[in-house]
Design goal:
Layout: E1 4-5, E2 7-13, E3 25-28, E4 39-43, E5 48-52, E6 68-73, E7 80-84, E8 94-98, E9 102-111, E10 120-130, E11 135-141, E12 151-156, E13 160-165, E14 168-174, E15 184-187, E16 192-196, E17 201-206, H1 207-212, H2 223-226, E18 237-240, E19 245-253, E20 256-264, E21 267-271, E22 277-282, E23 287-294, E24 301-307, E25 311-316, E26 319-325, E27 330-338, E28 341-349, E29 353-358, H3 378-397, H4 404-407, E30 411-417, E31 439-448, E32 453-461, E33 465-467, E34 471-473, E35 481-491, E36 501-509, E37 515-523, E38 530-533, E39 541-547, H5 554-557, E40 572-577, E41 582-587, E42 593-598, H6 604-621, E43 629-630, H7 637-678, H8 688-700
Parallel strand pairs: 1-26
Antiparallel strand pairs: 2-29, 3-4, 4-5, 5-6, 7-8, 8-9, 9-10, 11-12, 12-13, 13-14, 15-16, 16-17, 17-18, 19-20, 20-21, 21-22, 23-24, 24-25, 25-26, 27-28, 28-29, 30-31, 31-35, 32-34, 32-36, 33-35, 36-37, 38-40, 39-42, 39-43, 40-41, 41-42
Helix pairs in contact: 7-8
Length: 701
């Protein structure tokens, strides 16, 4: 543990139950203000994009609302955010946002505000690319030595590098010997892409070699491709580092040579442009992130390395210069120039703790005041004490049930889920093959204390769940008025959702023109996706949950599934999902354990989560504050990887099917043109050739 702490200059917590990772943080002058001050851009896996312009905060004060320039939900998980010259015809900076199957480039701009909240910022979509493969990460730079613009390279989960020349797709190439994606960066000095493969070696590929290599139409080379005019993709240089890499970065400063930094699991390496090692440092801890930055000493480079012990270490080459304690484990770290603070350290944790800090210690500026001798006026003190006691007593009596901050909100949205399923199901266009697909009604109420202009309600549930209507637009709400809507939720896709929670968002403007958002969450019943069934004695996959309290009867915590007339259901229950699979839940009679078992690994999650939630609610009602659940078994990684393999096999088969249909469609149009030309004035008897072609298509399918 470090003796010193990183000095908190500005900090905030982002969202609720959101997740962040290495690519979620970026710092740049994204709005092209020209002030030299960086903005902080953060994207989460929940799809929220936020842009901050931090201002110094006094100790104990809260973050000012105007520090948040923009917050928008893009409805798709954000894997990475980067800022560069991504739009043709201009050298202004634009924001690139990488989703799983999409790349979007936005322009960020602000308009001068006329209210107390200051300027208003918005993003405009300049262009987007729909990806044919699931993305992992991306890098950018002046590929091929272009001037005044940046190109983007995206690495897919199956090892393909997809290159985009701004608004157009250039080409794609598969990395040889690929197994799992690793960190990716670009070196403008050598015009090369550098990555770390699953073989635990650093690999460098020239852009020109990628451009002239054989096209990545197929993962495996065919005989025709081996003899085609294109060249096979060859690596420029390789260095075996003997461990997996967490991140990779290329730096080039005036006072130091260009270097490639690689952060491993137990070491960090500094390499020359040709792959030779300049130096390496063995770490005595487990690192989480790093960032090299400019050093004041000639010929050296400083590196910030965060670790899982909440320590931020500062190295000058291999020498440890400083260590500071952080309040969280950073997953990403950047160095930014902010208002009144050049070289601020920006850190982000996986649960959304964003902090701007600096190193060193604060000098003590406290001076003891001069003591003035004077006589005590007891009558004056007694009067002041009675006045304060009266204020305290009045505040205690008039305290409301609701928290002050909750009651004083301009608009409140609440969601009430019906305790029973709909008597007549409202499910529409469901792909579920069950005989009956139930639905449940959710009643949403909007209460406004002020005039709310153009309120817009959006309701989101986790796919494959769906709602009968997810958008509602209302007329202006007057003060102390309310609106209520009913909607139904049902299972639309023939698979299970990852959670049974929904969200409501209401966007509106108040009288001063300030846009605001109110939101709430709701929890859906388990009966929406399954119904009671006979338990199974045997199963392929089993999961045991340990608790610190005696087992609770299922008649108590699962009254909607257990039958009180059946005594054996106090310790065992069966759940039959609408998708056709079955899961069994058992409670031990002699120990404090519960077991969930099923023939399919993916079916264990929902019942496990529902069990823990209901146990926590039960013991909370019993005023038990120390209840805890734990899992002491081995994590079923092998079964998990097999499940992923089956998923990708199905996807590859679907892609092959689409390619086959596309090829047949081309043949069909060609034959159609020839037939119309040849038999323009005759009866089209040779259409039997067309029937033969179609029959062959379905035979291959």
């Amino acid at each position: 543990m470090s003796l010193f702490k990183a000095r908190d200059w500005w900090s905030t917590v982002l969202g609720e139950k959101e997740e962040f990772d290495q690519g979620s943080l970026c710092v740049a002058d994204v709005d092209n203000s020209g002030s030299g001050q960086d903005k902080i851009i953060v994207g989460s896996y929940m799809g929220y994009l936020r842009i901050f312009n931090p201002h110094p905060v006094k100790p104990g004060d809260e973050v000012q609302p105007e520090d948040l320039l923009l917050e928008v939900q893009l409805r798709e998980p954000i894997l990475q955010v980067e800022v560069g010259k991504f739009v043709s015809g201009t050298e202004g900076l634009h924001l690139a946002v990488l989703h799983c199957r999409k790349l979007c480039v936005y322009a960020v701009s602000g308009t001068l505000g006329n209210v107390e909240h200051g300027n208003q910022y918005q993003i405009k979509l300049m262009y987007e690319h729909n990806l044919q493969r699931t993305a992992c990460n991306m890098t950018y730079g002046p590929f091929g030595g272009v001037k005044g613009r940046d190109l983007i390279c995206i690495q897919s989960m199956d090892g393909m590098l997809m290159l985009f020349e701004q608004e157009s797709y250039a080409f794609g190439r598969f990395l040889p010997g690929f197994l799992l994606p690793g960190p990716l960066t670009y070196s403008s000095r050598t015009d090369s892409f550098i990555t770390v493969s699953s073989c635990r070696q650093v690999e460098s590929y020239k852009y020109q070699v990628l451009a002239f290599a054989t096209d990545a139409g197929e993962r495996q080379e065919t005989e025709q491709q081996k003899h085609s005019s294109g060249k096979r993709l060859a690596v420029d240089w390789v260095l075996n580092i003997g461990e997996q890499a967490l991140d990779i970065c290329v730096v080039s400063f005036d006072q130091a040579v260009s270097s490639v930094f690689v952060l491993g699991e137990r070491n960090f390496f500094c390499l020359k442009d040709n792959g030779q090692i300049r130096f390496m440092k063995k770490l005595e801890y487990s690192p989480s992130c790093f960032i090299p930055y400019c050093s004041v000493k000639e010929g050296t480079i400083n590196t910030l390395v965060g670790n899982h012990n909440k320590i931020l270490n500062v190295y000058q080459d291999v020498t440890l210069k400083w260590a500071a304690q952080l309040p969280h484990v950073p997953v990403s770290v950047k160095v930014a120039n902010l208002q009144d603070l050049q070289g601020a350290i920006v850190t982000l944790s996986d649960d959304g703790h964003l902090q701007c800090s600096y190193l060193g210690t604060d000098p003590s500026v406290f001076q003891a005041p001069r003591v003035e001798s004077r006589e005590m006026n007891y009558e004056e003190y007694d009067t002041e004490m009675k006045k304060l006691q009266k204020i305290i007593k009045g505040a205690t009596i008039t305290q409301d049930i609701l928290p002050r901050s909750e009651k004083e909100r301009d608009l409140i949205v609440t969601a009430e889920v019906s305790p029973d399923l709909d008597a007549e199901s409202q499910a529409i266009d469901s792909e579920v093959k069950a005989e009956a697909v139930p639905s449940v009604t959710v009643k949403i109420t909007i209460q406004s204390r002020v005039t709310a202009r153009k309120p817009n309600l959006a309701v989101c549930v986790q796919a494959p769940l769906a709602v009968t209507c997810n958008q509602f637009v209302f007329d202006d709400l007057e003060p102390d008025s309310s609106e209520t809507v009913d909607l139904c939720v049902f299972l639309k896709g023939n698979c299970l959702p990852s959670e049974l929670e929904g969200n409501c968002f209401v966007s509106y403007d108040i009288a001063t023109g300030i846009p605001k958002v109110a939101q709430c969450n709701f929890r859906l019943p388990l009966r929406l996706i399954c119904f009671p069934a006979q338990p199974s004695k045997a199963a392929n996959h089993k999961l045991t949950i340990d608790t610190n309290k005696p087992p609770v009867s299922f008649l108590t915590i699962f009254p909607d599934f257990a039958d009180v007339t059946e005594e054996d259901q106090a310790n065992v229950l069966g759940f039959w999902f609408l998708t056709g699979s079955k899961t069994t839940l058992l409670a031990s009679k002699t120990s404090q354990r519960y077991r969930i078992q099923s023939d399919q690994l993916e079916d264990l999650w929902l019942i496990t989560k529902e069990l823990t939630l209901r146990l926590e609610e039960h013991f909370k009602k019993e005023n038990c504050k120390d209840f805890a659940c734990s899992f002491s078994g081995s994590i079923p990684l092998q079964e998990y990887f097999e499940l992923i393999d089956r998923h990708f096999e199905l996807r590859l088969n679907a892609e092959k099917f689409q390619e086959l249909l596309s090829a047949r469609a081309v043949q069909f149009r060609a034959i159609e043109r020839r037939l119309l030309t040849r038999f323009k004035d005759k009866t089209p008897a040779p259409l039997q050739h067309l029937d033969t072609l179609l029959e062959g298509t379905f035979r291959e399918v």
